[in-house]
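Data availability excerpt. The first of two example chains:
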Amino acid sequence: MNLSKTDLNLFVVFDVIYQEGNLTRASERLHLSQPAVSHALARLRERFDDPLFERVGKRMQPTPLAQAIIERVRAALAELESTLNEGLVFEPSRSGRQFTLAMRDLLEATALPALMMHLQPLAPGIQVRSIRQNRRDLASALRSGSVDFAADVLVPMAGDIGHQRIGQQQLAVLLRHDHPALTQLWEADTYLGWGHVLVSSRPEGPGAEDLALAREGLERRVALRCQNYYAALQVAAKTDLLLTLPRDYAAQLANQQPQQWMVKPFPLPTANLELHLYWHKKALRDPALAWLQQQLLAVLRDTAGTGLTLPQ
């Protein structure tokens, strides 16, 4: 393939189709017509002599070749964009830039309102996408530029990934207001004597509270494992199951619905979560991302005590 005869915009289209898995959504993100996106994909298919994507139901499924080249394509696009942006001045008030943040559902519920209130007066034209990113793929997503920043608990990262502490979160236990456990002395044995709801996007494995208990040789009975806190709250409201979650988020729920919930401390005081903001170090050569980093650090430090994240 001769690079001088190749339209590099085709690779931008390739990346967006890969992310969206749908030509209609890809065309909306690219602000192109669907025929234009289809034509770009046809040109790439001809170049690579491979279909690249095959329709499976309503989704465009990447072929093995597409899966093999996607990370290199993303890394090349990110490096090219960084090169073009070096030395340029970012003007937030005039920008229509789209930024992608990786965060968990509790961060969306607690920090996004404050973040958007902060950003809207400064940069009314920008777009913010909040997505869920698997931890095992987080470093590669930051390197490729498919994710600009991530907020999560402290996890091991390679040297090219920068991070900064933005707060610490303790755990608490949420019970419905008439739960029979409220008539008992609140201690570890009481906590362990009831069934529990575990919220996790993973099909198996312990939560942060289980790891804290295991360090003390303790184990709880998980009666339900579900994927989001909304479902967990509905279950906890109608059963005797206990829900463990970040303390300040639990307090927020109890304050909003005092007739519904009671909050008790997690029985082990050492179960604290250290929270960090992550980025790829080269990304900060882009003035727009350097600006956004400062905004995120300012806002997330203020909201890091409000149920920012719970390991999933």
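And the second chain:
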Amino acid sequence: MDPAWFLLKAHVQPITNMVKKFKDNEKKILLAHGSGGKLTHQLIKSFVKKFRNLPLAKLDDSAVLKFKGKLAFTTDSYVVDPIYFPGGDIGKLAVNGTVNDLAMVGARPLYLSAAAIIEEGFSLVELERIIDSMNRAARAAGVKIVTGDTKVVEKGGADKIFINTSGIGLIDSGVDISSKNARIGDRIILSGTIGDHGIAILSAREKFDFQTKVKSDSQPLNGIVWEILKVSKKVHALRDPTRGGLATSLNEIAEQSGVGIEIEQEKIPVEEEVKGVCEMLGFDPLYIANEGKLVAFVPQKDCAKILNVMRKNRYGKDAQIIGTVVSRHKGRVVVKTNVGGERVLDMLTGEQLPRIC
């Protein structure tokens, strides 16, 4: 081979490698993206152009908002692994999770903040995908993301991306929904099947090849809550059974309200695929996380009309009355089993599935 070719290659190859490395870096998050300089501003603009609204466009240190009435405020952080899963991703989860937390006190969610902690080396293309997902979820829920923050940490300082969202909503006059408000005689309505989200995360994480794909139920619940409150403002308690599942949510309400709860196992809807996976792995669906279901404690006289309006909503089409609030065994939840027996449904001890939200 011509010696001149070797000389040319010796000079060209390092330059080619440098260009390739530069192009690769252009597509990934660098520590410089968190320095406060030009790259930081470019990163912020990635969010601003998607979440376009007047308070955010000003790029002030705080969003200035106007309110009149009773305010609800919540915050949550999302570290789900993996960040993409059947039925959703960390961005969709972060928006819906905070929207739902506001809805569970009867608030109409209006504004969110979004803060991202991003690991050095994370793909800018993947970040754009997550931002798009957050934008779609916010539009679907009818909320605006009006402020936020980004931080970049060294490789290994985080796992790809963590997101924090906080939310503000307004509560209408006459609405008083709290976990301490459950009353003896209340009927308990569950809006749909349980365990979908936790099993979807597990299948994606462990790469289980199920014949039928279980999808996360991540979805906004503010619409269905608004429809419930239009037919009755007498709802006593609402809860979205996320970490710890339905069992943990029921135990929290029983303890905080100082009442007993009895539920009927055969009334609790569980998808056959979820049931099968739980049986195979030794899990109880009652403890598996959900991200798009609610449990409502309502007066018996309003139960029928609330159940009816829930079933007309696509997020409540499988709603069922699953139990009753009782005066006996205060602070405890008792399950009436399919074979006619009873068992105490205790609160979860330990962690069945870490990092599910």
